Amino acid sequence: MSPIRWPTAQQFRRFMQLTAVFILGMVIGSIIYNVVYQTSYNTLWIQNKDLQIQLYQAEEDNKTLKKYNKRSTVIKEIKIRVEERDPPLDSLAVKEVVQQLHEELEVLRGRNIFEIDSDGKMARTLLNRKIYAVREKEYTIQIKTMLVSEGVLQVWIEMRPYVRS
């Protein structure tokens, strides 16, 4: 039987250094991969949410256009525009608030544009300074302008994070 040869301390230290560098490289590589994956997934999720909102609005517009295609004096379409802010708000939160507001303004669809005055005042009163909860944050809106043109109700709003006092 031959005696067992143990590596010297110098060889063992070199092996441990190479192993530590290899494991550290694996950890850093997995972190970088995870960041890239999460960023691309988040972008894809936001685009999907935006497309779902557009699809919903297009389906509603299509139903209204079919229903009121002979009448030219009714609100057939509702467009909501959010004024830009500095610093900009979370785009997903803006889209969700717009979708909720769109659902609330849906009662104005099909109404006569010449009678929108009383409905517009009612909507402004009900929705002004309303608080919307989106993704565990609260936002308040203020209706700036409502304009009806060629069967399209356009609403400009200002959206802010809500701060409880």
Give the topology, please:
Elements: H1 9-67, E1 77-82, H2 91-105, H3 116-127, E2 131-134, E3 137-149, E4 152-161
Parallel strand pairs: 1-4
Antiparallel strand pairs: 2-3, 3-4
Describe this structure as you would to a colleague.
The structure is a single chain. This protein is α+β, with helices and mostly antiparallel strands. It is built from 3 helices and 4 strands, in the order H-E-H-H-E-E-E. Strand 3 and strand 4 form a beta hairpin. It starts with 8 loop residues before the first helix and ends with a strand.
Rounded to the nearest angstrom, the distance between the terminal CA atoms is: 84 Å
| Protein structure class | alpha+beta
Q: What share of the residues lie within helices?
A: 40-55%
Strand percent estimate = 15-25%
Poorly predicted regions: none
The average pLDDT score comes to 85
What is the general shape? elongated
The major sheet is characterized as: 4 strands, mixed
Put simply, the count of helices is: 3
**Radius of gyration, taken over Cα atoms and rounded to an integer in Å:** 29 Å
**Numbering strands along the chain, what is their spatial order in the largest sheet?**
1-4-3-2
Q: What oligomeric state best describes the polypeptide chains here?
A: single chain
Number of strands: 4
What's the number of domains? Answer: 1
Order of helices and strands, N to C?
Answer: HEHHEEE
